[in-house]
């Protein structure tokens, strides 16, 4: 059991510490029933040689006594490297976990270090890693120790008296194996807190973003930069009151030019009447940030238009960050004749994907994206995940590729970068924690070192080498029932629990192998989190090129002794370095009786009862047999109790797994719902598009149809006008023709008056048949040529036609007049025929009658009155 205290470098991938969270609120005195404590810390064992150097001794074992319920659960005992009880300070944790040693390794040998916290939600992980407004966390203390230790050997990309050190940035970029984008802190902060930062603010307003960074959570009210007590017109934005002068830190050196001086004017402008403006001195930076973030739906606070945009909360001052605990005593030795550079990078693992926390948000001035995804990207709701992969320069180990790394010249710059990155981290309020981390946060401090060159302009600059100190704030495991999470927060919880389950499996392998003394085979490739945590735990495979020692890893397990028993016991079960199950022994009746019998104790009055006397008559052999049997039964009973206890534990685990599975199902359901929804939306879009196209086509067709109709109408209108015109013209023409013909007729009449009509008629008598018709004569054509050549006949026929077709429409008349002589004759003949047909019932006149008529006609002609013929 005590192997938890034994250092076993071969098998231990993590040194595991337990930290207990103090109660946030003091217990209420009039509380009816104080719950029995279920987490009992065993007092530390007598001081060993190992502990002699330390002033304090820390316990190493904790016992979990299941709360009294109907189930008889086993008592479990867990062993850790050290246990920090409720009263342990941040400094205790920093010192006793060996974080300082890890920093020293990074600084001197380039060996990577890793500090991570693991625990149930609300158990104090973020508090340990990032601290609060009054206490610094391990991250701040690590940065402070590092910068103090490096001292003047640090290379700063920006110096007030020198131009930007481009050589530093380019050489760091060239030596970086992760295809990172290396920026100076000045450039980064400048870009983050200038115009482009509005987008960051707008994204920070989303409920997913961190409401209040753990560094700044607390009651203390922070002042705005412009509200220094003795502020002149301009105030330095970065104040360094607490930094000792022995580090030679020049204020101007750490103050980026663009943020060095700010006017002492109010930072917040009243954006609407509803949201009254408050003087900056009363409105702390983070309170404002929180209010903006917590009310994303309030358009009155932040408006979309650039002109009405509320100004971004200004850059916080390092002096407003907590300055304690002081870590001045932890100064490490840095390599002589070397220069150092410190690069800070931050990323989070959210839903098993890696996102850079320092990458610039999209500028609000950027042109709006056409696609929905593009627009979402622009809004900052979607971020591009990064890959954890091998690169050209890192073939033997995976790195997070494409990160943004910020070169920090001082602790204050690093603080500003850290705070800026934290505003990007995802947090949400849950039933268990008002500011709960919804992602695993990785804060990486890269310390680069190279031999110092004697003066600038050296022919070949040596390359940078170094190690990384990673500080990880894991998201907490939680039960949906307790956390009261729903929707996306529930989905996040499912992913968090899943990744923590894989982490638990890896840690379990470590603890099992440690107990068995075997080499652990850690299944760390199951998810991004375990890959990131464990991939550096093994010596580099490529010994020839880069013989990197495995990282020095520290795991701090946090637990709330007043929290959820089941969740805490599960975390402890897989994280503890050693575990022991014990069953509480109830003294059995048999052993009590036997004990009494074998000892042969007298009764209360000192005398043996008859029963006792009777028992004494048992033979010794019988008694021995009975005793053996009782012992056997007792052992069996104990064995069964242990088995029962183990079964109980298994059942609890199964229950928890079931719960996790249920949560996963919930997540899956959520995902499926979201997928269905998006698919439906897509289909709706498609259908809408199809309908729109069809409507447009229909519209075009309709327009074409109407155009055609209009064209036809137009044409028709033209034709009728033309016809009108042409008919008038033709009427004129025909009238003229008629006149001509009449003139000709008159001329012919005159001519005929001068000549004998009989002579003339003789020549054509054969050609003309005079048929008697009701009311007049009808000339029947026998030869067309005769009609054509004889104008008289033609005129006769014309007169005949006019007379016959009398009563028809004038238009028809015109048509008749217009036709050629042949047509005219035909018409005449047809008319004649029709008339003849009309007269068919009448009897044809006898030939003698015809002859008589002819004679009469001839007589008429002879009398010289042709008009009478008609
Ligand atoms: N050692 C401590 N001393 C004082 N307060 C603490 C301590 N540990 C935690 N707290 C307080 O408890 C609350 C929850 O802590 P914290 O946010 O660090 O939990 P967490 O484990 O990070 O939760 P989550 O996993 O949900 O992010 C905070 O208000 C924090 O200040």
TrEMBL record:
InterPro entries per UniProt: Kinesin-like_fam, Kinesin_motor_CS, Kinesin_motor_dom, Kinesin_motor_dom_sf, P-loop_NTPase
Molecular-function GO terms, alphabetical: ATP binding; ATP hydrolysis activity; microtubule binding; microtubule motor activity
Any single GO CC term annotated in Swiss-Prot or TrEMBL for this entry: nucleus
SMART domains from the UniProt entry: KISc
Domain Kinesin motor: 13-581
Coiled coil: 623-671
Region (Disordered): 254-282, 294-322, 594-614, 828-870
Keyword match Coiled coil: yes
Recorded family membership: Belongs to the TRAFAC class myosin-kinesin ATPase superfamily. Kinesin family.
Name recorded for this polypeptide: Kinesin-like protein
Organism for this UniProt entry: Capronia coronata CBS 617.96
């Amino acid at each position: 059991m005590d192997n938890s205290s034994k250092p076993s470098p071969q098998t231990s991938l993590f040194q595991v510490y337990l930290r207990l969270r103090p109660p946030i609120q003091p217990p209420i005195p009039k509380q009816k029933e104080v719950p029995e404590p279920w987490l009992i810390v065993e007092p530390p064992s007598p001081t060993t040689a190992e502990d002699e150097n330390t002033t304090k001794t820390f316990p190493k074992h904790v016992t979990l006594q299941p709360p009294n319920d109907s189930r008889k659960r086993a008592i479990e005992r867990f062993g850790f490297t050290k246990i920090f009880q409720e009263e342990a300070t941040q400094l205790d944790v920093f010192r006793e976990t060996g974080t300082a040693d890890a920093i020293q390794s990074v600084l001197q040998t380039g060996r990577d270090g890793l500090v991570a916290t693991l625990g149930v939600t609300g158990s104090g992980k973020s508090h340990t890693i990032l601290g609060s407004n009054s206490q610094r966390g391990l991250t701040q203390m690590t940065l402070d120790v590092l910068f103090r230790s490096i001292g003047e050997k640090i290379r700063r990309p920006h110096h007030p008296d020198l131009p930007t050190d481009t050589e530093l940035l380019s050489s760091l970029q060239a030596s970086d194996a992760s295809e990172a984008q290396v920026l100076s802190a000045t450039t980064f902060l400048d870009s983050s807190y200038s115009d482009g930062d509005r987008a960051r603010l707008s994204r920070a307003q989303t409920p997913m973003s961190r409401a209040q960074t753990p560094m700044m959570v607390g009651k203390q009210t922070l002042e705005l930069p412009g509200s220094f007590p003795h502020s002149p017109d301009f105030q330095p934005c970065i104040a360094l009151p607490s930094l000792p002068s022995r580090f030679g830190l020049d204020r101007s050196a750490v103050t980026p030019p663009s943020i060095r001086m700010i006017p002492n004017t109010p930072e917040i402008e009243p954006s609407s009447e509803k949201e009254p403006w408050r003087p900056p001195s009363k409105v702390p930076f983070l309170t404002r940030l929180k209010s903006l973030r917590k009310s994303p739906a309030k358009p009155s606070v932040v408006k979309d238009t650039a002109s009405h945009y509320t100004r971004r909360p200004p850059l916080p001052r390092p002096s407003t960050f907590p300055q304690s605990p002081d870590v001045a005593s932890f100064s490490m030795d840095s390599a002589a004749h070397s220069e150092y550079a410190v690069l800070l990078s931050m990323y989070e693992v959210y839903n098993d994907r890696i996102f850079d926390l320092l990458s610039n948000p999209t500028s609000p001035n950027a042109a709006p994206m056409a696609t929905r995804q593009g627009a979402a990207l622009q809004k900052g709701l979607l971020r591009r995940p990064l890959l954890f992969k091998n690169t050209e320069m890192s073939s033997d180990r995976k790195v997070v590729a494409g990160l943004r790394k910020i070169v920090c010249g001082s602790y204050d710059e690093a603080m500003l970068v850290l705070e800026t990155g934290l505003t990007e981290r995802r947090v949400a309020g849950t039933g268990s924690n008002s500011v709960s981390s919804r992602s695993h946060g990785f804060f990486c401090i890269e310390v680069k070192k190279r031999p110092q060159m004697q003066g600038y302009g050296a022919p070949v600059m040596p390359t940078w080498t170094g190690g990384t100190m990673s500080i990880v704030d894991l998201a907490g495991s939680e039960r949906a029932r307790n956390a009261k999470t729903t929707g996306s927060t529930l989905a996040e919880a499912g992913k968090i629990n899943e990744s923590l389950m894989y982490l638990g499996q890896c840690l379990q392998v470590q603890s099992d192998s440690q107990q068995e003394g075997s080499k652990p085979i850690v299944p760390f490739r199951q998810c991004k989190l375990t890959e990131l945590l464990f991939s550096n735990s093994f010596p580099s495979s490529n010994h020839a090129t880069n013989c990197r020692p495995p990282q020095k890893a520290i795991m701090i397990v946090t637990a709330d002794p007043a929290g959820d028993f089941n969740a805490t016991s599960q975390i402890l079960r897989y994280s503890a370095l050693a575990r022991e199950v014990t069953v509480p022994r109830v003294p059995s009746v048999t052993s009590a009786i036997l004990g009494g019998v074998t000892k042969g104790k007298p009764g209360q009055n000192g005398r043996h009862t008859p029963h006792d006397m009777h028992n004494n008559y048992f033979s010794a052999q019988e008694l021995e047999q009975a005793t053996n049997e009782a012992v056997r039964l007792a052992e069996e009973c104990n064995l069964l109790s242990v088995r029962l206890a183990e079964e109980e534990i298994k059942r609890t685990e199964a229950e928890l797994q079931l719960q996790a599975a249920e949560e996963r199902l919930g997540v899956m359901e959520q995902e499926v719902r979201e997928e269905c929804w998006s698919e439906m939306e897509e289909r709706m879009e498609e259908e809408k598009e199809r309908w729109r196209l069809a409507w447009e086509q229909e519209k075009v067709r309709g327009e074409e149809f109407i155009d055609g109709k209009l064209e036809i109408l137009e044409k028709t209108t033209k034709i009728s006008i033309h016809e009108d015109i042409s008919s008038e013209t033709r009427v004129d023409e025909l009238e003229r023709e008629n006149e001509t013909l009449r003139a000709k007729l008159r001329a012919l009449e005159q001519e005929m008056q001068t000549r004998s009509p009989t002579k003339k008629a003789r020549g054509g008598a054969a050609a003309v048949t005079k048929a008697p018709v009701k009311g007049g004569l009808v000339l029947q054509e026998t030869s067309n040529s005769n009609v054509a050549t004889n104008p008289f006949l033609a005129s006769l026929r014309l007169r005949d036609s006019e007379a016959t077709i009398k009563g028809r429409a004038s238009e028809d008349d015109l048509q008749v007049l217009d036709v050629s002589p042949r047509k005219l004759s035909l018409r005449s003949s047809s008319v004649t025929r029709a008339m003849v047909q009309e007269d068919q019932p009448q009897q044809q006149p006898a030939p003698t009658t015809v002859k008589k008529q002819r004679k009469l006609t001839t007589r008429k002609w002879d009398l010289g009155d042709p008009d009478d013929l008609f």
